[in-house]
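Lab notebook page, bench 4
Experiment: in silico fold of construct C2
Operator: M.H.
Input chain length: 433 residues
Purpose: comparison with the prior construct
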Amino acid sequence: MSPKLATVARSGATEGATSMGVEPSLETAPINILIVDDDAKNLTVLETVLNDPSYRLVRAGSAQEALLALIDREFALLILDIQMPGMTGFELAHMIKTRKRTAHVPIIFLTAYYNEEAHMLEGYDTGAVDYLYKPVNPGVLRSKVSVFAELHRKNRECVIANSVLTSEVDHRRRVEDELRELNENLEQRVNHRTRELQEHAARLRRANEALEQFAFAASHDLQEPLRTVAIYSQLLNDRYGSNLSGEASMFLETILDGAQRMRSLISNLLTYAQVEGRDDPPELADGEAALAQALTNLDHLTRESRATIDHSSLPCVPIKAAHLEQLLQNLIGNALKYRKEEQPPCIHVSANREEQRWHFVVSDNGIGIAPEYHVTIFGLFKRLHSGQKSGTGMGLAICQRIVERYGGQIWVESEEGQGSRFHFTLPVVEPSQ
């Protein structure tokens, strides 16, 4: 038996061997050998010749004692005398071989009288494996016995190994059954969860569609009365402005300004709501073109503030062109709006690749932002300079919504009075092969 198999057999003998009806200590137990002779002296001689700690010699003085011993335990070999009272060795051998439980036990006949060829043939016919004459050569007998003992030992090791393997197979089968049951349960749970997610996605899709329709309707319905207010306020100013007192003119100007601010707020709310939109395949927006359009839209404010705006080469990114334009326009517009009174704004736009993302930076030399506001400024309706600058407080919230819509991040680095650096990231598009 190989060392590895012996280790496996020993480690698993208790569970496996016991389940097969094999004692855990079977591997190291002595080999049982049954010696049968009606003469006690002959039995003593055999015990002397076969004296070996690895053998357990069991004496039987008759065929009846031998049968009882065979019922009591398992034997590796039977050394049998032929001439015995009551039942000869041939008759005993025939009986042993006809019984299922003992048919496999090898038999060696050992006789001093039945030495003719016919007797030898009769012995082999009964199932004997060898036929020896007395007085036997001790070395020959020990050699023959050791062969059968080793065969029995190998067979015993195979029984142990088989029992261990059988136990392992049973264990693995139980584990497989348990895993199969777990997989079935998991599959059912996954299917159930998938259906729940699909239903939730469908509800969200319907809600988004309803919200989009509401946004369009609300935008139209809210802006219509504002246009009326603005138009009639302007007509009132044009026709009767010269007749109004200074206080009345101030009231009218406040009405016009409020109407304009409300229109801007509604427009920005609609823009904020439309950022997510539908899950259309992402477009590839040209950064240079988006910046050019944003600067065109800001041309009046740029000339009014005498700003200097430059930029490095901008890449193409997977985003809707309108969203990239809106993003750049809001960040540059803020830099123009929140400038220092005594110094024209200087704005620089750049983009650098960092692994699988583009890192954009819009930097300025404006009034800056205190560190405690670096997070809150991206919330809806957050305006830090409401007493000094106009605005709806939604520009940066729209920027954040756009950037996160495409899997990016946006943040600011700034100190009050030291200008600001707005950062945002967008994914890289690898060139097609």
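Observations: The two ends are 60 Å apart (CA to CA). The longest helix spans residues 138-240.
Next step: discuss at group meeting.
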